[in-house]
Give the backbone structure.
Amino acid sequence: MSTRRAVVTGASTGIGEATVRALIADGWKVLATARREDRLQTLADQTGCEFFAADLTDQTDLSNLAEVASREPVNAVVHVAGGAIGTDRVEDADASAWLRMYEINVLSALQLTTRLLPAIRSAGGGSLVFLTSTAAHGTYPGGGGYAAAKHAERQIPATLRLELAGEPIRVIEIAPGMVQTPEFSLNRLGSKEAADRVYQGVEKPLTAEDVAEAIRWSLDVPEHMNVDLMVLRPVAQSSNTEVVRAPLKVRES
Ligand SMILES: NC(=O)c1ccc[n+]([C@@H]2O[C@H](COP(=O)([O-])OP(=O)(O)OC[C@H]3O[C@@H](n4cnc5c(N)ncnc54)[C@H](OP(=O)(O)O)[C@@H]3O)[C@@H](O)[C@H]2O)c1
Protein backbone atom coordinates (compact mmCIF):
# COMPACT_ATOMS: atom_id res chain seq x y z
CA MET A 1 0.00 0.00 0.00
CA SER A 2 1.34 3.47 -0.83
CA THR A 3 1.91 5.91 2.03
CA ARG A 4 -1.30 7.60 3.12
CA ARG A 5 -1.25 11.39 3.29
CA ALA A 6 -3.25 13.57 5.69
CA VAL A 7 -3.84 17.30 6.00
CA VAL A 8 -4.05 18.32 9.69
CA THR A 9 -5.24 21.80 10.73
CA GLY A 10 -4.51 23.43 14.10
CA ALA A 11 -1.10 21.76 13.93
CA SER A 12 0.96 24.45 15.69
CA THR A 13 0.06 23.30 19.23
CA GLY A 14 -2.20 21.11 21.36
CA ILE A 15 -4.36 18.43 19.77
CA GLY A 16 -3.40 19.24 16.19
CA GLU A 17 0.32 19.06 16.90
CA ALA A 18 -0.15 15.77 18.78
CA THR A 19 -2.18 14.43 15.86
CA VAL A 20 0.63 15.21 13.42
CA ARG A 21 3.07 13.35 15.65
CA ALA A 22 0.71 10.37 16.06
CA LEU A 23 0.02 10.05 12.34
CA ILE A 24 3.67 10.39 11.36
CA ALA A 25 4.60 7.71 13.94
CA ASP A 26 1.91 5.55 12.34
CA GLY A 27 3.50 5.88 8.89
CA TRP A 28 1.38 8.67 7.40
CA LYS A 29 2.72 11.60 5.40
CA VAL A 30 1.26 14.77 6.87
CA LEU A 31 0.75 18.32 5.62
CA ALA A 32 0.46 20.38 8.81
CA THR A 33 -1.18 23.80 8.84
CA ALA A 34 -1.87 26.68 11.25
CA ARG A 35 -1.03 30.38 11.23
CA ARG A 36 2.28 30.27 13.14
CA GLU A 37 4.94 29.26 10.63
CA ASP A 38 7.78 29.13 13.18
CA ARG A 39 5.98 26.44 15.17
CA LEU A 40 5.18 24.47 12.03
CA GLN A 41 8.82 24.69 10.97
CA THR A 42 9.91 23.25 14.35
CA LEU A 43 7.33 20.46 14.02
CA ALA A 44 8.58 19.72 10.52
CA ASP A 45 12.19 19.60 11.75
CA GLN A 46 11.15 17.15 14.48
CA THR A 47 8.79 14.91 12.54
CA GLY A 48 9.48 15.33 8.83
CA CYS A 49 5.95 16.58 8.13
CA GLU A 50 5.28 19.05 5.32
CA PHE A 51 3.77 22.35 6.39
CA PHE A 52 1.98 25.35 4.97
CA ALA A 53 1.10 28.37 7.11
CA ALA A 54 -2.43 29.66 6.55
CA ASP A 55 -5.15 31.63 8.28
CA LEU A 56 -8.24 29.51 7.72
CA THR A 57 -10.47 32.59 7.90
CA ASP A 58 -8.67 34.14 4.92
CA GLN A 59 -9.98 33.17 1.47
CA THR A 60 -6.63 33.57 -0.28
CA ASP A 61 -4.85 31.49 2.36
CA LEU A 62 -7.53 28.81 2.10
CA SER A 63 -7.14 28.62 -1.68
CA ASN A 64 -3.34 28.56 -1.49
CA LEU A 65 -3.44 25.82 1.14
CA ALA A 66 -5.84 23.76 -0.95
CA GLU A 67 -3.64 24.20 -4.01
CA VAL A 68 -0.52 23.02 -2.14
CA ALA A 69 -2.39 20.15 -0.44
CA SER A 70 -3.84 18.95 -3.74
CA ARG A 71 -0.47 18.54 -5.47
CA GLU A 72 -0.39 14.99 -4.09
CA PRO A 73 -3.22 12.61 -3.17
CA VAL A 74 -5.04 13.46 0.05
CA ASN A 75 -6.33 10.43 1.95
CA ALA A 76 -7.53 12.26 5.07
CA VAL A 77 -8.33 15.77 6.24
CA VAL A 78 -8.33 16.29 10.00
CA HIS A 79 -10.02 19.54 11.03
CA VAL A 80 -8.62 20.48 14.45
CA ALA A 81 -8.28 24.28 14.22
CA GLY A 82 -10.78 26.13 16.36
CA GLY A 83 -11.24 27.49 19.82
CA ALA A 84 -13.31 29.38 22.35
CA ILE A 85 -13.44 33.06 23.23
CA GLY A 86 -14.59 34.07 26.71
CA THR A 87 -17.21 32.68 29.07
CA ASP A 88 -19.85 35.41 28.84
CA ARG A 89 -23.37 34.66 29.95
CA VAL A 90 -25.90 34.96 27.14
CA GLU A 91 -27.31 38.18 28.63
CA ASP A 92 -23.82 39.73 28.45
CA ALA A 93 -22.79 38.17 25.15
CA ASP A 94 -20.34 39.93 22.87
CA ALA A 95 -21.75 39.26 19.39
CA SER A 96 -18.37 39.82 17.73
CA ALA A 97 -16.88 36.98 19.83
CA TRP A 98 -19.77 34.67 18.82
CA LEU A 99 -19.14 35.57 15.17
CA ARG A 100 -15.39 34.96 15.47
CA MET A 101 -16.02 31.55 17.07
CA TYR A 102 -18.33 30.72 14.17
CA GLU A 103 -15.62 31.70 11.71
CA ILE A 104 -12.77 29.76 13.33
CA ASN A 105 -14.73 26.62 14.20
CA VAL A 106 -17.38 26.35 11.48
CA LEU A 107 -16.54 28.29 8.34
CA SER A 108 -12.86 27.27 8.42
CA ALA A 109 -13.75 23.56 8.45
CA LEU A 110 -16.54 24.07 5.93
CA GLN A 111 -14.44 25.94 3.41
CA LEU A 112 -11.43 23.67 3.65
CA THR A 113 -13.72 20.67 3.19
CA THR A 114 -15.23 22.06 0.00
CA ARG A 115 -11.79 22.88 -1.34
CA LEU A 116 -10.23 19.48 -0.51
CA LEU A 117 -13.05 17.10 -1.43
CA PRO A 118 -11.81 16.97 -5.05
CA ALA A 119 -8.36 15.84 -3.81
CA ILE A 120 -9.97 13.13 -1.64
CA ARG A 121 -11.97 11.98 -4.65
CA SER A 122 -8.92 11.90 -6.88
CA ALA A 123 -7.22 9.70 -4.26
CA GLY A 124 -10.10 7.26 -4.76
CA GLY A 125 -11.78 8.19 -1.48
CA GLY A 126 -10.62 8.82 2.06
CA SER A 127 -11.61 10.21 5.44
CA LEU A 128 -12.73 13.54 6.83
CA VAL A 129 -12.32 14.01 10.58
CA PHE A 130 -13.95 16.85 12.48
CA LEU A 131 -12.71 17.62 15.99
CA THR A 132 -15.80 19.15 17.61
CA SER A 133 -16.37 19.00 21.37
CA THR A 134 -18.81 17.82 23.99
CA ALA A 135 -19.92 21.46 23.64
CA ALA A 136 -21.26 20.34 20.24
CA HIS A 137 -23.70 18.06 22.07
CA GLY A 138 -24.73 20.10 25.10
CA THR A 139 -24.08 23.44 26.73
CA TYR A 140 -23.10 24.90 30.11
CA PRO A 141 -23.34 28.29 31.83
CA GLY A 142 -20.92 30.67 30.10
CA GLY A 143 -20.52 28.30 27.16
CA GLY A 144 -23.28 29.59 24.88
CA GLY A 145 -21.16 31.08 22.13
CA TYR A 146 -18.71 28.18 21.96
CA ALA A 147 -21.53 25.61 22.17
CA ALA A 148 -23.38 27.43 19.39
CA ALA A 149 -20.32 27.29 17.15
CA LYS A 150 -19.51 23.66 17.93
CA HIS A 151 -23.18 22.62 17.49
CA ALA A 152 -23.00 24.29 14.07
CA GLU A 153 -19.67 22.63 13.21
CA ARG A 154 -21.17 19.23 14.04
CA GLN A 155 -23.78 19.72 11.33
CA ILE A 156 -21.03 19.60 8.69
CA PRO A 157 -20.08 15.94 9.29
CA ALA A 158 -23.68 14.98 10.09
CA THR A 159 -24.92 16.39 6.78
CA LEU A 160 -21.90 15.38 4.70
CA ARG A 161 -22.28 11.73 5.75
CA LEU A 162 -25.75 11.77 4.20
CA GLU A 163 -24.71 13.70 1.11
CA LEU A 164 -21.65 11.52 0.39
CA ALA A 165 -23.60 8.25 0.67
CA GLY A 166 -22.42 5.91 -2.08
CA GLU A 167 -18.84 7.24 -2.13
CA PRO A 168 -15.91 5.59 -0.32
CA ILE A 169 -15.48 8.59 1.97
CA ARG A 170 -15.67 8.27 5.75
CA VAL A 171 -16.96 11.19 7.80
CA ILE A 172 -15.87 11.06 11.42
CA GLU A 173 -16.64 13.28 14.41
CA ILE A 174 -14.46 13.20 17.53
CA ALA A 175 -15.98 15.12 20.46
CA PRO A 176 -13.74 15.53 23.51
CA GLY A 177 -14.61 17.01 26.87
CA MET A 178 -11.91 18.57 29.05
CA VAL A 179 -8.49 18.39 27.39
CA GLN A 180 -5.59 20.14 29.11
CA THR A 181 -3.61 21.78 26.32
CA PRO A 182 -1.18 24.69 26.67
CA GLU A 183 -3.25 27.30 24.85
CA PHE A 184 -6.99 26.48 24.69
CA SER A 185 -8.03 27.90 28.09
CA LEU A 186 -5.28 30.53 27.97
CA ASN A 187 -6.69 31.90 24.71
CA ARG A 188 -10.24 31.62 26.02
CA LEU A 189 -9.69 33.29 29.40
CA GLY A 190 -6.67 35.52 28.76
CA SER A 191 -4.40 34.62 31.70
CA LYS A 192 -2.42 31.64 32.92
CA GLU A 193 -4.00 31.89 36.38
CA ALA A 194 -7.53 31.69 34.96
CA ALA A 195 -6.50 28.86 32.62
CA ASP A 196 -4.93 26.88 35.48
CA ARG A 197 -8.16 27.15 37.51
CA VAL A 198 -10.05 25.27 34.76
CA TYR A 199 -8.06 22.11 35.52
CA GLN A 200 -7.47 22.71 39.25
CA GLY A 201 -7.94 19.57 41.33
CA VAL A 202 -9.13 17.49 38.36
CA GLU A 203 -7.46 14.09 38.35
CA LYS A 204 -6.04 13.58 34.89
CA PRO A 205 -7.87 15.75 32.37
CA LEU A 206 -7.53 14.32 28.84
CA THR A 207 -4.25 15.13 27.10
CA ALA A 208 -3.69 16.19 23.50
CA GLU A 209 -2.07 12.77 22.98
CA ASP A 210 -5.24 10.99 24.21
CA VAL A 211 -7.31 12.76 21.59
CA ALA A 212 -4.68 12.28 18.89
CA GLU A 213 -4.76 8.56 19.58
CA ALA A 214 -8.54 8.53 19.12
CA ILE A 215 -8.10 10.30 15.78
CA ARG A 216 -5.34 7.93 14.70
CA TRP A 217 -7.45 4.91 15.67
CA SER A 218 -10.52 6.18 13.85
CA LEU A 219 -8.40 6.51 10.69
CA ASP A 220 -6.73 3.11 11.09
CA VAL A 221 -9.81 0.94 11.53
CA PRO A 222 -10.70 -1.11 8.43
CA GLU A 223 -11.92 1.09 5.61
CA HIS A 224 -15.48 -0.24 5.70
CA MET A 225 -15.82 1.06 9.31
CA ASN A 226 -16.98 4.64 9.83
CA VAL A 227 -16.58 5.96 13.35
CA ASP A 228 -19.55 8.34 13.13
CA LEU A 229 -19.04 9.87 16.56
CA MET A 230 -16.63 9.31 19.42
CA VAL A 231 -17.22 11.19 22.68
CA LEU A 232 -14.23 11.26 25.03
CA ARG A 233 -14.09 12.64 28.56
CA PRO A 234 -11.75 12.25 31.49
CA VAL A 235 -13.22 9.91 34.12
CA ALA A 236 -13.35 12.91 36.46
CA GLN A 237 -15.80 14.70 34.15
CA SER A 238 -19.18 13.03 33.83
CA SER A 239 -20.94 15.81 31.90
CA ASN A 240 -20.30 19.35 30.67
CA THR A 241 -21.25 20.62 34.14
CA GLU A 242 -20.13 17.78 36.46
CA VAL A 243 -16.39 17.87 37.11
CA VAL A 244 -14.86 16.22 40.19
CA ARG A 245 -12.05 18.36 41.61
CA ALA A 246 -10.62 15.81 44.06
CA PRO A 247 -8.73 12.54 43.73
CA LEU A 248 -10.91 9.72 42.41
CA LYS A 249 -11.49 6.97 44.96
CA VAL A 250 -13.79 3.99 45.20
CA ARG A 251 -16.68 4.35 47.63
CA GLU A 252 -16.54 2.28 50.84
CA SER A 253 -19.16 -0.45 50.57
N1 LIG B 1 -8.80 21.78 24.84
C1 LIG B 1 -10.03 21.36 25.05
O1 LIG B 1 -10.48 21.24 26.21
C2 LIG B 1 -10.90 20.99 23.88
C3 LIG B 1 -11.99 20.17 24.14
C4 LIG B 1 -12.83 19.82 23.09
C5 LIG B 1 -12.58 20.30 21.83
N2 LIG B 1 -11.51 21.12 21.60
C6 LIG B 1 -11.31 21.59 20.24
O2 LIG B 1 -10.15 20.97 19.75
C7 LIG B 1 -9.48 21.83 18.84
C8 LIG B 1 -8.04 22.02 19.27
O3 LIG B 1 -8.02 22.31 20.63
P1 LIG B 1 -6.65 22.61 21.41
O4 LIG B 1 -6.94 22.50 22.84
O5 LIG B 1 -5.55 21.87 20.79
O6 LIG B 1 -6.60 24.18 21.05
P2 LIG B 1 -5.42 25.18 20.87
O7 LIG B 1 -4.25 24.65 21.60
O8 LIG B 1 -5.95 26.51 21.20
O9 LIG B 1 -5.14 25.07 19.30
C9 LIG B 1 -5.94 25.69 18.33
C10 LIG B 1 -5.25 25.53 16.99
O10 LIG B 1 -6.05 26.17 15.98
C11 LIG B 1 -5.20 27.01 15.20
N3 LIG B 1 -5.98 28.16 14.74
C12 LIG B 1 -6.72 29.00 15.49
N4 LIG B 1 -7.25 29.97 14.71
C13 LIG B 1 -6.82 29.72 13.45
C14 LIG B 1 -7.00 30.37 12.20
N5 LIG B 1 -7.72 31.48 12.08
N6 LIG B 1 -6.42 29.83 11.10
C15 LIG B 1 -5.67 28.70 11.19
N7 LIG B 1 -5.46 28.04 12.33
C16 LIG B 1 -6.02 28.56 13.45
C17 LIG B 1 -4.09 27.43 16.16
O11 LIG B 1 -2.89 27.73 15.47
P3 LIG B 1 -2.33 29.20 15.17
O12 LIG B 1 -2.62 30.04 16.37
O13 LIG B 1 -0.87 28.96 14.94
O14 LIG B 1 -3.05 29.63 13.94
C18 LIG B 1 -3.88 26.15 16.96
O15 LIG B 1 -2.99 25.29 16.27
C19 LIG B 1 -10.30 23.11 18.76
O16 LIG B 1 -11.19 23.02 17.67
C20 LIG B 1 -11.07 23.07 20.08
O17 LIG B 1 -12.26 23.81 19.98
C21 LIG B 1 -10.66 21.47 22.61
